[in-house]
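Sanity check record (used in CI):
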Amino acid sequence: MWTPTHFPAAMRSLNPTTRAKAIELANQLLVQGRIDKQQAVHDSVAEARRWAREASHVSDKAFSTAQHSAL
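Expected output for DUF2188 domain-containing protein:
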């Protein structure tokens, strides 16, 4: 199991929030036992990046809506 202080090098470039999500996802995949560590890391990094983009998009949309409401 990986932690915020012990994680694969492939997650090093992720920002801390995205890395935490990737660690969570990778650990879940490993517990399920369907794939090996390398594939778990690859899949979790890709999914965490998608998650971060979507979260950013939702946040941007909410900010834009709030700005229009304030006008």
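The chain has a mean pLDDT of 88. If this sentence no longer matches the regenerated tokens, the check is flagged for review.
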